[in-house]
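A protein record pairs a chain with a discrete description of its three-dimensional fold. The following entry can be read in just this way:
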Amino acid sequence: MNNIRLIFVFLFLCITCGSFAQSAHVKGVILDNENHPAVGVNITSSGNATQTDNNGFFEIKVPSNKKVSLIFTHISLKMMSLTVSLKPNEVFVFNPVMSNSEEQMGEVFVSSRNKKRVQGITTVDAATIKKIPGANAGIENILKTLPGVNSNNELSTQYAVRGGNYDENLVYVNEIEVYRPFLIRSGQQEGLSFTNTDLVQNVDFSAGGFQAKFGDKLSSVLDITYRKPTQFGASLEASLLGGSVAVDAVSKNKKWSAVTGVRYRNNSLLVNSQDTQTNYTPTFADIQTNINYDISKKWQVSFLGNISQNKYLYQPLTRETKFGTIDQPMALAVYYEGKERDKYDTYFGALKTTYKVSSSFTLKFIGSLFHTIEQEHFDILAQYRLGNVGEDKTTQVDFTRGIGSQLSHARNDLDALIANAEIKGFKEWKNDSQLEFGLKYTRESIRDRIVEWEMIDSAGFSLNPPIVALPQNNQPYQPYTGPLLPYQDVRATNYNTINRFSGYAQYNKKADLGSNQVWYNVGARFQSWNVSGAAVEGKNQIVFSPRAQFAIKPDWDMDMVFRLSGGLYHQPPFYRELRDLDGVVNPNVKAQESVHIVLSNDYNFKMWNRPFKWVTELYYKSLSDVNVYSIDNVRIRYVANNNATAYAQGLDFRLNGEFVPGTESWISFGYLKTEENYENKGFIARPTDQRLKFAMLFQDYMPNIPSVKLYLNVVYNTGLPGGAPAYSDPYLYQNRLNDYRRADVGFAKVFVDSSTKTAKANWLKNFKELSVGLEIFNLFNNQNAITNTWVRDVYSKNQYAIPNYMTSRVFNVKINARL
């Protein structure tokens, strides 16, 4: 009860006191050969002792910064021992099986998480990522449950962080920046994320206030490390949505090692649950490898390569959507002709070499090449009927209020080649201080052709574009003599080259301030760039970005860290940010600038005698030279003139810990307000103004049958701006979409894992992991809309917003195996 009171004291008053101990903890759940909790197991270490409870759970305190042996004994089970070396306040999870044969575990070295804690970095367990269900399962699926991270599209791997957009997030794999395709406009076209979950070892995420060593973006950093295998292994995943295979390989002399993964995905199961009936033939596939070679103890070389081919073949047939109110239900019936053929081929290769000049000085050289070839071709004619629903309340249109058609055409092609060359250094001194620095050259070569138009008519009369001053088309009541123009028409051909030079330097220090511990980091980045092309020549631009972090761990009873971070952040424009609404490149678009401040509190405590963490972050961003944009599904279109200012402010909370012994779960809550002022017209909500966000990730198992697992992923987001017609003036239309509500649940029967691998069944003995699961996406069958389709009633002159719903409830079966 006292612990609960202390939580509320922290939440509302943020006042604590005490001291921290130089110790670590080992905890876990112990099972016997029958997969039952092993009750009454004695665990002893360095004079400390404990026993497992009725659930097989234990936790014991051990000294830090030295090797410690733990002895596990039971009256009917064989003794087992474990040797660990842990850092202060580290928590090592150990879930063994005590069998009839004595086992001697090897030494375990756990890297300190204190460094990431004071930097404001959230670490996500790689094993958890693979378990949590989601329509687009993977790292991004987990990120969307963290505070400050928002997405209203389960078919997309893109996400917005604290008021930023999808283009404002950095993604690194093995310290190498990775890129997304350019032309994708719909979440269902995305296919596969670059990151292959089967190859991942560490996942670190920062939602703001990150250090100078990370690149020039405004919102977040996702830093992923692929594992370096030490022995042969293989894994397999298969489901109704596709499958993947991954292989770990190591040479006999241990100098060579590689992890390779092949993935295939087909979203037909999800897309067929939407309102639009289609002939849909997608093919999303890739192969990815990370090869390591140890030339010597001082010199290592690695290669990261990826080839991806995403084909999106889409032929819509019909659509029936019911909307309106209970008193006046309405329906839209659409009949389609035509098809869409999209293709996104990407090729990525990176060579990284690490040379240890001395025990305290390391140099890294990184070179990478990214090539994407994309096409977006479609001709789709949609003919619709809008009207009242019949007395049987089905979606059949009974009384027609309006008819019309829409013809959409596109022949968009893009070829982009991005080359990077980088040198990085790391110097460490014995007084707990480090210096990091780097220099990087990037060359971006873009060839882009846009031919995209749309014709709309209502009751046989063409609708003129809303952004062009033309005589009013008021047929059939008045004759129209003006020109007939496409409702939308974008045509451009761009050949551009962008050369960039960037660099950073930062200094890290850990020290004592009286009886308190402090950490601080100061650094700065710069970037110089120039845009040129066949018809444009931009001026050379330079930005300078100082950044700093300060953290203190007071000498209090409770384990708390206070952190202040921020600085000046710039985002020099990428190609998509240079292109305006007409497809024309403005070579002199300036870098968007943000003054970012984050104040946070990180509190480790115990509840129910188990470890928990409560993190609170208060942030504010003041943005200038803002490049305003609109979002349609996942496509972003920029104005490209830097004529706006903006701000973002909010408060994030996250409580995570062992709600169920031996498993990690968390609850997130976020409040955000972000507004922009375009050409001094006044502040209005930005397209990413996600006011409230709640998410929960929960893991559980049956106490009497611990091999039966449950995984729950719940997200609630309030509605985003974006419910207005396309090309409308946002100052006249500030409509919002409905709230986004989604729950995905997974059930798994685990036959073999790290705690049950001693099973004696012949068909299981060769597996390290084996499970079969059932997943239910959108458990409560909520109707979530990503955009609205606007249909005009020619007689009443009303426009009706017909929601474009996302996926409904879908069942999936999945098998996971690892050798």
